[in-house]
Design goal:
It contains 5 helices and 14 strands. By secondary structure, the protein is of the alpha+beta class.
Amino acid sequence: MARRRKSYSKKSNIIRLIIGILVVAISYFFINDISPDPDIEIVVLDVSHDRVLFDVDVSEDVVGEIIKIELTTNTSIVSILENFTTFVFDGLDSDTTYTINVSHTYEGILGISELETIISKTFKTLPTPEMNYGSNQNDDGFYYYTYVSENDYYHGTNDLIGDALKSKLNEIINEDIERTSYAEAKEHLANSDVALDDDTKVYNVYDGVYAPRVWDSTSWHREHVWPNSRLGIDRVGESQRNIASDLHNLRAITPRINSSRSDRVYADGSGEAGITTDGGYYPGDDHKGDVARIILYMAVMYDELMLTGYDTSFR
């Protein structure tokens, strides 16, 4: 009886050992197979049309192995990129259907390398837009505009012209607006109008004079490019937050130039800034571009303002 128990004991130990090895092995493969891996982002871009074709997360266990993106159209391979997580395609044809297959290689049964498709997606590129021009377009391309992508701030203006374009721009730039006070404009202008080659100075509008950056009430004043007296409200107070405190309409200005400009309307001219023969004011060759953009902004931003004397329709 003793021999039997001894023999049985040896067999039991061997069985336990085998079972233990199997449990460890099964647990290892099971845990490694189902445990969640961190994700890695794969982004596919079509730079020809300024679009993200797709942006997805895949398990990090793919990283380190060959990630392949195959782009096809009419069953022909256009491009294959490997070992990157951001894929950029350029030169894609407009209004064309493509298929993207994202795959990776892995070691399968008996160590044989196998290919697995992670994602497959079919998409169509945007058609080439018909370019639009204004009736007064000149050789330099004025009034020309192009299309913007879906994620662009101004996307809603695509295909719009005339009053519809102005109305949409007005809607976009008035959304979630936060105004500063007229007093706070002193500090903001000290930053926005700082001279590019001397950060202790501000660059004054119209004459380009450098003035001490820190507000002292005498070195520079706050110029309303669209005059305060022509905004349809009383003179702005320091604590007020309204159309007259809009920073987009304010510039640092030399006090004597501020007095000379007064509330004169802008007029054609050339050279340096100054009063024109017709009583208007020419902002100067170096400043007329800034002034024009500010005036355009104000006319679009505020429905109550209107430019006069010129054809101001948007095309």
